[in-house]
Amino acid sequence: xxxxxxxxxxxxxxxxxxxxxxxxxxxxxxxxxxxxxxxxxxxxxxxxxxxxxxxxxxxxxxxxxxxxxxxxxxxxxxxxxxxxxxxxxxxxxxxxxxxxxxxxxxxxxxxxxxxxxxxxxxxxxxxxxxxxxxxxxxxxxxxxxxxxxxxxxxxxxxxxxxxxxxxxxxxxxxxxxxxxxxxxxxxxxxxxxxxxxxxxxxxxxxxxxxxxxxxxxxxxxxxxxxxxxxxxxxxxxxxxxxxxxxxxxxxxxxxxxxxxxxxxxxxx
Length: 268
Known about the structure:
The chain is mainly alpha-helical. It has 11 helices and 2 strands; from the N terminus they run αααααββαααααα.
């Protein structure tokens, strides 16, 4: 049996409790810089490829400075990759307009936009995963609340992250039990699936009530207390200022193209 979703979440929380230069930064700083990173990456034209490559420096730097295993981030990235493939899969079929010649072959714009989608997916998802791994969901939600996110939404986001995988594991156990009890290996009917969904809803509501009662018994009042105080220090300002300047520079100029011309001695 493989590792359950809840075990993977627990491992993510372990990474969030490490001690590194990235972990010691304020959650608000990392959240704002990551949002600026995602917005900048998504602002490029659909045919842009080379100008996006310098932005890999940001998630690489976060992983290197946080001590989070790169393989863990890569594994999560590969799990979500089919969604990006499904989004861009039809681009080469719908956009057949030639854009340039490569080795005597005409390259259609659909292939460029398909590659651009995959690059944007890898950049944005890896940055978001690394932000979560080097911050922890509790600190991140608390930081978002201090940035102006309503408390109700911050608490609901934290609970969703905590328990959505618990419900997913419960659904997998119900599905496995159904398969073991079914005869002939026939696929269950829609009526059976409807019954499973209803039972899963009842189990989720019952578990939610038990969890909420236990939280009230322990003094929960809607706040999310954190062990670390929310203060901005010099490293936070340097981190935000340095990366924001790099994002502006990489957005205004194609750094990969300029570096390639510098190395090859080709003038524009």
